[in-house]
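Q: Could you write out the predicted structure for this multi-component system? I'm mainly interested in how the pieces pack against one another.
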Amino acid sequence: MAAQIQFNDVTLGYDRHPAVHHLDGEIAPGTLLAVVGPNGAGKSTLLRGIVGILKPLAGSIALRDINARNIAYLPQIAEIDRSFPISVFDFTGAGLWRSIGAFGGLDRHQRAKIVEALGAVGLNGFENRPIGTLSGGQMQRMLFARVLLQDADVIVLDEPFNAIDTRTSTDLLALVRRWHAEKRTVLAALHDMEMVRANFPDTLLLARGAVAWGPTTQVLTAENLAVACRMCEAFDDGAAACADTKPAQAA
Amino acid sequence: MLDIFATPFTDETARRALVAIVVLSFGSAPIGVFLMLRRMSLMGDAMSHAILPGVAVAFLLSGMNRVMMTIGGLIAGLFVAVLSGLMTRVTQMKEDASLAVFYLVSLALGVILVTSHGSSHELVDILFGDIQTIDAEALYLIAFNTTLTLCALAVIYRPLVMECVDPLFLRVAGRAGALAHLVFLAFVVVNLVSAYNALGTLLAVGMMILPAGTAQFWSRDISRIIFVAILSAIVSGYLGLVLATATDAPAGPSVVLTAGAIYFLSMIIGPAGGLVRRFAPGRHLEA
């Protein structure tokens, strides 16, 4: 099948220092892909590049037959100002942005959809609570409800199960599987290898470059994981400009 | 006895002052709420400094002409707001830092311009405007600014709220966040210039921040907070003018002092995080 997201020798980073270095590859529509790797491997950076928040330092990320707005992105929880006085209902309702835009009002049908999405993540009765009163797990459930409402073809989740108890992550994983069954493309940055083995057919093992990319069972070998840990070297202030134009093996 | 609440407003100047402050409340209070929620309270303060040179230059060019001075302030303020906003977007610099850079530069530039041509005495007169001297023209100007502000806020309200609470979401889903932010900054300036006409540059921020702070003790929902902020701005404006007449004090500071008093009262008795609630919360609930 034709690629939906294609990486063409892409380098992403901050201040000219690459966090993802010369990545090539493609993601087919309907893929359920786990992005794993040690801390600092560039997982979040890659996801930020895909959703367009971060411009590549070199190379490109091409989206085929898909509008950039048709991507739902769930950032790490820390990016959200939880002290802001907004209710769970209003916050989640922003997921309907594509259909109501910046000014459209909510009709009864849409209100019902928001309540239904909150129900689907187990947050019945939380509609009028300020978001600041939610626990970490409830917050994550609410963010999933918003993704549900976004009804996007590509769903990008950045470490969605960090610091979340087993029951919550089981509930939310069920949603991920449902999205997969609906033929949506789902990419998730994850740390829990057991969860990846059990739920994600494909895996990208990232350590600045791709260490391995393919069916999960072939990617998550002890050998590959050891390589990934080694390859994640420190940010070097004195690093020279990269002259490499081909994918680097040991970056 | 009740006369003291009505007699101040028997002459036209005083009535004009009252109308000015009420109209001002409708624009400044919501702007202040967003400033506070974005943790930019002090940024309003910085911005009011950025307006000074523009006002002063206009005064040197055209004399004591309120319209010209307002335009001068608008130009200087917008210039600083837009440039610092862009700088934050394009570079890694945080908003407060880039704003500090710009307002310092513009303030220094303004002072040099002014000292080269005018006397410092005149300048002080301008910079601490007096609400009792508001003429019909200035009143129209304030009303015009407030109308514009309310229309603009209605248009950018949703993107602005989302930009505050979850900026990344908007950058992916709607791309309206940056625009909403710039429009918001522009209207911070518009309202500062409005308030400058009534309260002088230094106290102009008072009509934004104090009612906004008061409102935070009364609700945890953004739309109700805005409503309470407007209400408390109007009440402090009215009571402040009454106080000024009764004690023969200057009007601007009286209004701001009243707003401050209401703030501290709310801090004590407000149901959303007020001190009484904090130290005597009542019995806990079943669930």
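A: Regarding packing and overall arrangement: The two ends of chain B are 50 Å apart (CA to CA).
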